[in-house]
Amino acid sequence: MNRAIDNLLQILDLEPLERNLFRGRSPQVGWQRVFGGQVIGQALVAASRTVVADRHVHSLHGYFMRPGDPEVPIIYEVDRIRDGGSFTTRRVVAIQHGEAIFSMSASFQIIEEGLEHQSEMPDVPAPEDLPSEQELKEKFLSVAPENVRRYWERERPIEMRPVDMTHYFSKKPLPPQQYVWVRASDPLPDDERIHQCVLAYASDMTLLDTSLFPHGTSVFSPKIQAASLDHAMWFHRPFRADDWLLYATDSMSASGARGMNRGALYTKDGTLIASTAQEGLIRPRKDG
Question: What are phi and psi of 121, to 5 degrees?
């Protein structure tokens, strides 16, 4: 197992402090604030640890309230709101320096059979037909802006293969849609909840950036202040986060210094396994 995925699994293995109370830590890699996907994933771990094993998360809804401090542990407090006949509801608050930095509600359900339909997966190149991250580094990074280069050179637990790299290099306005293949960079344990929490971690990647495509810029621009404001996720069908998944995202609106984005995650055979929605801050900097 490579170091990045091993570190991610350690980060998601929260320390129990007391009933309904857990402590999480952040990787010490020089970040100025905690990655939003980490807080989502850890909050889902905390909620899952209070739910019986035969119930699986089907939705979560969270709000980011303050930037997380990577130097300080995060305390996750779980409120066991309801244990019903089919559904279980939990609320989680993430706390640092005595203040809430994130809150999340999550709903879990027993496995049930029912009606079935789904949207079709977009027709895009398969991950095997796209450059690997190593090939991207060798081919593109020498001409990429410094902050983009630093991002792609960092060892990450999630491997990504974008269908199109244009927005990293061009200021040309583009349609507000993006397609990226994602997977855990190494095999994960055979535990469904781990795969759900790893996907929750990955779901915050690339999503907000889509709302900047029509404006010829990206979250890497020093002229933009970007941050996730809220995040919602729905889990539809079983999956493995260490298999390739297509993350198809689009943005319906940008206004009021906020961008609205939605995403769909598909397996290689076209099965829709999860959906996301997020509104984020995309504020032009006054000194930009």
Answer: -70, 140
